[in-house]
Structure formats: C-alpha cells, structure tokens
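Session log. Operator J.P. requested a structure for one protein chain; no other inputs attached. Running the standard single-chain path with token output.
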Amino acid sequence: MRECLGLARAAKQRGDSPVGAILVRNGEIIARGIEGGKTHRDITYHAEIEAIREATALLNTQNLSDCIMYTTHEPCIMCAYVIRHTRIPTIVMGLTSGDIGGASSAYPLLKDTGIKKWGTPPQLITGVLEEACKALNID
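Structure written below.
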C-alpha cells in the first residue's frame, strides 16, 4: 500500500485525483497505475485500469487470477468491471468510494454473483493505511 501512496502523490502533484494502484504476483510488483484522467483527458485512465493494462501486456493474458491488487481507493464501477473480467481474486484498498464504488455503491459489481462467467467475487480487504489515504484527499 505504501507503493500505492507514492503513486497517488505523483497523480495529485500533476493535478489528477490522488489514486495509485499496483498488481502483485508471487510477492513481486508486476504493474503500477497512476490516476490520469485529467492529464490524458480520458476518463478511462484510472489507476486500477492502468495497472491492469500494464500487467496484461507484460503477461500476455487477460487472466490475472494469480495477482493481488492494492489500491488507495475502492475501485469505481468501471474499474470493477475490468477487475472482474480479468479475474483478480483479491483487492486490498485504503478507502471506500461510496456512491461510485464498485462494492459500496448501488451497483456492487465487485460483489456480484449473478454473472456466472465472472466466477467467484474477489476478496475485499478495506481500511489498509486508511488515514494515510484520507490525508491525500485533503488540499
């Protein structure tokens, strides 16, 4: 999570939302993502999606079922769809996101069991370094 915090600080310094994400495989960081929607003028540049893009390119597969995602914020609904599609089994997050969250909103894709091709929902671990993550959101 400390790596995610560093990435989130970099995003904040360039004017983006302070979100950072990493993917870990066999105890090693294999991909990093920095929030970049404002920088790239493209809403799909979320930290979680950027980490997934990097990991799928590195591994040459969309199956990330042997990875763990760490992120400063609960993945949004859009990111939740990508996470489920790539079968990431564990998400470790600092903060929940409320009405736009992929687990805590009215559209909890990270918890959905109705879409059979996605299989079992990921394990969600919240509150990791929560105070440090909150501090990034204070101007």
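Operator note: The chain has a mean pLDDT of 96.
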